[in-house]
Every structure is written in structure tokens, then in C-alpha cells.
């Protein structure tokens, strides 16, 4: 019996989800997680750190993520179950290494809804100051958690509407920026090489550091693979959705950064680096466009929160099913909606507490650690599983592409800030201690592996 058949049998013999997601749903899900308006979160600081060449940094980050998206797709075809990075590393390389891959991505997935609660609550409070920040956090958390409990089909329909709205806002923003540029209020010409290359300011280390930062905007395409057990055709659709969402998202980010750079060439003159794109929006379309952009940020907190919470809850479900987390708690599905209700409620509680007590910059710094660590594990999984274990000696598919994906992610990883690396490593040490205890010194294997 093949690995895929055995995995399918394992899934069918356990609690199962409803298969309702099409390719379109999966692509929208990935874009919703990344959010079309993601550059607003990092634009000011990233534009300044790259010397006004953020579009180049985004282009490098997109290429890097495309390699990893390909690897996620190959592993999803081999193991069409919901554990994503955790499952792929576990089955392809080693069961215990799979736990550490899942542990790293777990940090990433936990932080996504937490940071969007923060961002959404902050901008909603700025828009309606009479309602306190913590009340906005509870409102956003309540909406996201309710939709996720009602089921992935409901979440998918909600995401379609919200992504459509954000897409419209991005289009309006780009149109107003183009109008400003052509009208002579911004750069001298609509077509310019300066957002990608300025010889007098070009510093490779700064561009690479900016690309590492830009990876923040791409975190999310990988979450598509956590929905393999809810996809109608996971073997074909998961890999297509991962690559398409990464490509589409990258183009959206590059276009926004490009026109913003031309509208506001002096990246060191923003009123605040935290709200740089709002300065650009106001310059291009006045207070109305700036307000619309603020609303879109709040909406982005809903889409990213929906997808982040859903992905984390399904990752915990898979780890619970394999008994690397307490099985009884983490594998409980809602009797009617077939959603991992305990995991969703746990995620909600953690995100609310974190959003109220933690500083946003601390949370933002940690997200790329988990994401890039997971991407490296998955690229390695493709090489080990296909090229060495299955002996499919297709150099380009199963060695060169994932190898480049690993090397690029590793290079971006070592360019993260020292504080990010320090805290991330502490998180991994905590996981090591937990694994040593639960596996009795790595002597006990997960049931899913023992039964293969």
C-alpha cells in the first residue's frame, strides 16, 4: 500500500472534516491570509531600510517564496492531510523532527491572529476612539471565532467578500497614485527603474534585510496545505493554490510598493514610519482615500484572523491526532459543524490575552522566525522524500528547486534581527524540553508512524 493510501486510510479512520473547498476557495484563502493590503504593515520602515527600493525587496522575497510554494505543493500531493509542515517533515525526514517543524510553524500561526487582533483593534480605535482598544479586540475576536466554529465553508464565503473589498481598495489606491504621478505631483514618470534600483543608494545587505522583512507579507500561502482534508481535490488543487496565491500576492505587493514609491520618493519624510502608506494615500487621494485605507486595514484583520485561527487549529488537530499533543482535547470536533472547536477557542483566548498585554513590535519580529524555519523544513522534505527515499532522480524538480528554496530561506533567516533569533531559539528549546518529556527521551514514536 502506498504512503498516500495509508495516509488516506489513517484519515478516514479518524475524525474527519467536510470536503468543500475548490481551487478558487483555496487561492482566495491564501491571499486572505497574506491580505492584499499587507504592505501597509511594514511599508515605512521597510522602504527606509532598503533606501527606497522596497519593490526590489518584494521581488526577491516573492521569488524565494515561489520555490517554497512549489515544495509545499509537492509534499501536499504526497501527503494530502491537514498537518502541513509538521506532517511533511514527520513523514519525509523523521517523526521527531516533524514535531520541531510543527512547533516552529505553530508559533507563526499563533502569532498571526494575535497580531491582526492588535492591528485591527488599534486602527478601529483610531477610527472610533469612543470605543476602547480592548473592546475592539473582543469584537474582532468574537466575529472571527464564531465564523470559524460555524465551519470552513462559512469562512471561505466570508473571505471571498472581504478579499473582494480589499482588492477594490487596492485598485482604487493604485489608480489614485497613478493619477498623482501622471499629474506631476509625484515622480517625474510613471515608468521608472528607481523603485527597483538606485545606484547611489544600493546596498545588497540592506536589500536582503528588506527581503527578509518583506517575507512577513507572504506568510500565509503555506496555510493552504493545512486544509488538505477539506479540499475537494487536494492532490491537484493544493499545489496549484499555493503557487498561485504566492504569485498573485507578490504582484499585488510589488505594484503597491512601486506606485507608493513614485508618489512619495523621499522615504525618510513620512510623518510616521508606522503609518507611511496612509501618508501616501492622503497625498494621492486626500482624507477620503486615507480613511478608506484605514477601513481596509481593519477588514484585513478579519481575513488574516479567520485564516490564521483556522490554520493553527487544524495544525493542533493533526498534532493531537498523532498524540504529540493531548489527543482527547485537540482532536475534538464540533458535533454539528465538524470544526476543531477546542482548538479554535484556545486560539481565541491566547490571541485576546496576547493582544492586550504584548507590544506589537515584539510579536511582529517573531513571525518570520517560525515561517522561514517551516519553509526550510519543507524544502528539505522534498529532497529527502522524492530524491533519496523514492529515488526519483529528477534533478530540477526534486533537488535544484527545493535546494534553492532552502538556501534562499536560510539566507533570509540568518538576516533576521538578533532579538528575533534569540527569542525564536528560546521557543524551540521549550519545544525540545516538551518533546523529551512526552517521547521519553525520543524513544516513543507517534501512533501514526508506528502504524505505517
UniProtKB/TrEMBL annotation:
Domain of life according to the entry: Bacteria
Stretches assigned to the Amino acid permease/ SLC12A domain: 32-442
Provide the transmembrane region boundaries. 26-46, 52-72, 97-121, 133-154, 161-182, 202-221, 242-264, 284-306, 344-363, 369-388, 395-414, 420-437
| Topology relative to the membrane | Multi-pass membrane protein
| Species of origin | Bacillus lumedeiriae
The record's keywords, sorted A to Z, are: Membrane, Transmembrane, Transmembrane helix
Keyword Membrane found: yes
Q: Does the keyword Methyltransferase apply?
A: no
Name by which UniProt lists this protein: Amino acid permease
- InterPro entries for this protein: AA-permease/SLC12A_dom, APC_superfamily
| Protein location | Membrane
Amino acid at each position: 500500500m502506498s504512503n498516500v493510501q495509508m495516509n488516506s486510510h489513517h484519515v478516514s479512520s479518524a475524525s474527519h472534516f467536510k470536503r468543500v473547498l475548490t481551487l478558487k476557495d483555496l487561492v482566495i484563502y491564501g491571499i486572505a491570509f497574506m491580505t492584499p493590503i499587507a504592505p501597509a504593515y511594514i511599508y515605512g520602515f521597510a522602504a527606509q531600510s532598503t533606501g527606497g527600493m522596497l519593490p526590489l525587496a518584494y521581488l526577491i522575497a516573492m521569488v524565494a517564496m515561489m520555490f517554497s510554494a512549489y515544495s509545499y505543493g509537492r509534499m501536499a500531493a504526497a501527503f494530502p492531510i491537514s498537518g502541513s509542515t509538521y506532517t511533511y517533515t514527520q513523514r519525509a525526514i523523521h517523526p521527531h523532527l516533524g514535531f520541531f517543524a510543527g512547533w516552529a510553524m505553530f508559533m507563526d500561526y499563533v502569532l498571526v491572529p494575535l497580531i491582526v487582533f492588535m492591528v485591527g483593534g488599534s486602527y478601529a480605535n483610531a477610527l472610533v476612539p469612543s470605543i476602547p482598544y480592548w473592546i475592539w479586540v473582543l469584537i474582532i475576536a468574537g466575529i472571527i471565532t464564531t465564523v470559524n466554529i460555524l465551519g470552513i465553508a462559512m469562512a471561505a464565503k466570508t473571505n471571498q467578500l472581504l478579499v473582494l473589498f480589499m482588492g477594490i481598495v487596492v485598485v482604487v489606491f493604485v489608480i489614485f497614485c497613478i493619477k498623482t504621478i501622471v499629474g506631476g505631483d509625484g515622480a517625474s514618470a510613471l515608468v521608472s527603474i528607481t523603485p527597483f534600483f538606485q545606484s547611489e543608494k544600493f546596498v545588497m545587505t540592506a536589500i536582503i534585510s528588506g527581503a527578509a522583512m518583506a517575507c512577513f507579507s507572504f506568510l500565509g500561502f503555506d496555510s493552504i496545505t493545512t486544509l488538505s482534508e477539506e479540499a475537494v481535490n487536494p492532490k491537484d488543487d493544493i499545489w496549484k493554490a499555493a503557487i498561485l496565491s504566492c504569485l498573485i500576492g507578490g504582484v499585488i505587493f510589488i505594484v503597491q510598493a512601486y506606485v507608493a514609491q513614485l508618489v512619495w520618493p523621499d522615504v525618510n519624510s513620512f510623518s510616521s514610519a508606522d503609518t507611511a502608506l496612509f501618508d501616501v494615500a492622503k497625498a494621492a487621494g486626500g482624507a477620503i482615500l486615507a480613511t478608506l485605507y484605514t477601513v481596509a486595514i481593519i477588514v484585513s484583520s478579519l481575513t488574516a484572523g479567520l485564516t490564521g485561527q483556522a490554520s493553527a487549529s487544524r495544525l493542533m488537530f493533526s498534532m493531537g491526532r498523532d498524540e504529540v499533543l493531548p489527543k482527547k482535547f485537540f482532536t475534538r470536533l464540533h458535533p454539528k459543524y465538524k470544526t476543531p472547536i477546542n482548538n479554535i477557542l484556545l486560539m481565541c483566548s491566547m490571541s485576546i490575552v496576547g493582544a492586550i498585554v504584548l507590544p506589537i513590535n515584539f510579536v511582529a519580529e517573531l513571525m518570520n522566525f517560525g515561517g522561514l524555519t517551516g519553509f526550510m523544513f519543507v524544502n528539505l522534505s522534498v529532497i529527502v522524500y522524492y530524491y533519496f527515499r523514492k529515488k526519483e532522480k529528477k534533478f530540477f524538480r526534486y533537488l535544484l528547486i527545493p535546494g534553492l528554496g532552502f538556501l534562499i530561506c536560510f539566507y533570509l533567516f540568518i538576516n533576521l534581527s538578533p532579538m528575533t533569533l534569540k527569542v525564536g531559539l528560546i521557543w524551540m528549546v521549550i519545544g525540545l524540553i516538551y518533546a523529551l518529556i512526552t517521547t521519553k527521551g525520543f524513544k516513543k514514536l507517534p501512533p501514526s508512524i508506528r502504524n505505517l
